[in-house]
Amino acid sequence: PGAAPNLHWRSSACTSLLQTHMDSAQASALKKLISTLKEQPELLNEPSLAFFKDYLTSLGATIPAAKAAHTHGHDSAHDSHEHKHGSGCCAHEHESHDHGHDSHSHGHGHDKEQHGSEDEEEEPEEEDPELMAPDSDPPAEVGVAAGGEVSDADMDKAGEMKMAAAEAASGGDYAKAVECYTSVLKLMPSPLVFAKRGDCFLKLKKPNAAIRDCDKALESNPDSAKALKVRGMAKRYLGDYEAAQKDLALAQRIDYDDAVDGIQRFVIKRCADRQARAVKQKAKEAERAAKAAARRREEARREYEKQKEEEAAGGGGMPGGMPGMPGMPG
User: Fold this and answer.
1) Are 181 and 200 in contact (CB under 8 A)?
2) Among 222, 187, 170, residue whose Cα is nearest residue 196
3) How far apart are CA 245 and CA 272, in angstroms?
4) What is the reported pLDDT for 20?
């Protein structure tokens, strides 16, 4: 207070002197600044007025000391969130600060729960103990192209090979049956012989070889129930249940077989289970995406609130000022 008269006198002299060198708008703005400084001389300690403070000091003016900064720092002597307050006017800020801590704590717990949910692995498919390992043998011989003339001798020999193949297959010697059917295909290739050889390949646990033979049979006869059944079962043993169901369903429509019914029911159930898991997984992905979006919105909200608090704590500049100075209207 003792410095106020001295500051007042020099500020008035400064104003009178500057009015002769500036226009009315500039003089009016400076008057407003000086009027504000008369009421709050401690504002001269603001960094934005350092130039003016230096000028007044050079004229011999005494500048009031800056007031102690109002802090919300934590008391190092206490573990609690006790704050230093100059007056009751900070009660609202104190409540906001406490709320910020609560939100922070809650947010971390919530994020941990969400991340834990995201780390859940996809539900595994039930094990199928009857699956076969994919075979990688080179393709078997397919014989001559169908449609050529066959001699009586070749027809007789092919007939003998068919009987030998059937006998070997009925006795469980599927390797020999494959050899016999290959001999037949070299003489008289036909969709049925391809399908029967494919069936023997499947019995030898060579599903890919079986599929190749059935594909060959279906090229000539798309309605071969035998080829569709064998190929459908081969795909079932490779775990391609959807393709297996397609082949088996068509084969059963063409020529229903009780022996295939059980396999078809198994395949239908597997397809339904896969579809259910796919729907469930899609729902989980949608839920994770929604949670991630919610987290982003929450983080943006917190950042916005933090910026508002920082702006409020900084005062947003000086009140009633002059052009070019934040918070001071011109």
Assistant:
1) yes
2) 170
3) 11
4) 53
